[in-house]
Amino acid sequence: MNVARKYTFIWKCVEQFSKYKVKNIVKLPKRYVNKNCGSFPKPFAPLVPVIRENPYNTNYAPFLYVLSLGLVLCDSLLRGKEKRFFQAVKYGNLSEVSLLINDKVNVNIRHPLGWTPLMLAAVNDRFGVVNLLLKAGADPNLQEEFINVGRTANEKRIHPVEVLMTREDEFSSELNSKATYLGFTALHYAALIDNFDIVRALVEHGANPCLKNDIGHAPILYAKEGPVKKYLEDQSAKYVEIEKQRDLEERRRFPLEKRLKQFIVGQEGAIRTVASTVRRKENGWTDDNHPLVFLFLGSSGIGKTELAKQLAAYIHKNKPEGFIRLDMSEYQEKHEVAKLIGAPPGYVGHDDGGQLTKQLRACTNAVVLFDEVDKAHPDVLTVLLQLFDEGRLTDGQGKTIECKEAIFIMTSNLASDEIAQYGLHLRKEIDRQRKELLDNKSDLVLSDDIQVTRKFKDGVVKPILKRHFKRDEFLGRINEIIYFLPFSRNELMELVGRELKLWAERAQQKHKIILEWDRSVESALADGYDVHYGARSIKYEVERRVVNQIALAHERGCLNKGCTVNVSVLWKENSDSPEFKLKVKKKGVKDWVEIDHFNSPLKNVSNLL
């Protein structure tokens, strides 16, 4: 071994040491040696400059050789126990497995190629070892990270032959090397080898019989006809029922309305209507032959998209595939229907599938958001009509997707001006009634929650919708039309407070600066609300009036780490708009220093230096 190979060997050992594996070493160019020399172990730091300048100097051969042997020895000692553990599990050596468990070996450790000891015991029919591992705390729901020989070799950057040999020697030689195993659990492997005792032991220790692998298959699909399949059918049904009861109890303790109100300000009526409809669906009080369809109407930035997102997060427990969002402004032309369901045979993109059908196939009960549906071409609406009516969709390849369990939400700005003006009128009426109650010293309290009347819906909104969509059958497929109204004064104050808290968190995380403000600041910023832009107008007002000043002060060197910034409001005579002032207090100092961007860069600048 020449010096260059020894040197490279050392750095590869250091690089792979924490991963418990040493790969085959090949001779690398001098630039690799120079690049990796920076992480040299501290005891040998004085040698770093010398070796960097002379990486091929044979005077360092003994030192490099001894260090490389030391690293290999340490790595071998760490790997030796784990390798013994996997071998003992594979061959069913109960005494060795028990000894190593007592020696604090991690029973959930993964092989470098992705499987766990419990999977290894299950696939090799080692019932005794399975019991031992489960009692020691092995997790039966861990999923396989090994994909197949080709893809695993590509991801791990190992030769496919080496992966194949390792898989057969250290896992099982009875499996198809070309099949995909990503997402398998120990229960999948136990069902595959048709061992009833192992299957039962895994289920009794908490294995989920409904947990699907990467291609969407539960363990029962790999079981043969017989006791194992019958047992898994029974346990799957029991598991589903238990999950339903658990979800029901959770919904009782924490209703959907409360969950949605954590993320959405105001819109009491919209939240109540959506939650009630979804509750009917969850408890089996809806038509199973048709999906739920909503139409969200209201101004921009008022919570329509956010409500759809939070509904998907609730139903699918934050799984990304559970929320599908399509911007319908991208489907304004007739030929763009192919983008939605896929190109027909003989056309470019036929094999790719459509943007909607491809995602729906992956999650047939997803929450699907058609954003700004009023901008879509009429032919696209024809496709949606079939989808809403039958709960299924045929893609360009002729495959039908059943999606009766999906929830479809359309958003639109149609009639947004009329809804906004109507909402403002109702807000003013409530304010007038509240003032009268105060004048009369009444104990009654009026809520900010307002209801949209049937007269307004039928006389104002529906004619606008009919005039645009030009088809009653499309509107007739919508279960609920949800109206999003302008924010009340209290809701605006809450929006401002949330936005300021968000900037306070950013200031602390990014710059170690504490941001404070007076209550009057929230009130002044709420005056910047624009009914046509909703919450976005509040966001922009905070950035324009407050954050811009803080950023300028930071750039001028007025703000240091650990300082406190206070934002206040100054009302000047003959001015409709208030002025926002900043005061800074250095860490460990009691006195505040005012920052004035208009008259001078900084008053009393010496106090902050």
TrEMBL record:
Q: Which PROSITE patterns match?
A: ANK_REP_REGION (PS50297), ANK_REPEAT (PS50088)
Domain Clp ATPase C-terminal positions = 487-580
Which SMART domains does the UniProt record give?
AAA (SM00382), ANK (SM00248), ClpB_D2-small (SM01086)
Entry keyword annotation includes Transmembrane: no
| Key word ATP-binding present | yes
Q: What is the species listed in this Swiss-Prot or TrEMBL entry?
A: Cryptolaemus montrouzieri
Transmembrane annotation, as ranges: none
Positions of ANK repeats: 113-145, 182-214
Q: Which UniProt keywords apply?
A: ANK repeat, ATP-binding, Nucleotide-binding
> This protein is called what?
Caseinolytic peptidase B protein homolog
- Extract one GO molecular function annotation from the record: ATP binding
Give the matching Pfam families: AAA_2 (PF07724), Ank (PF00023), Ank_2 (PF12796), ClpB_D2-small (PF10431)
Location of the AAA+ ATPase domain? 290-436
Q: List the SUPFAM superfamilies.
A: Ankyrin repeat, P-loop containing nucleoside triphosphate hydrolases
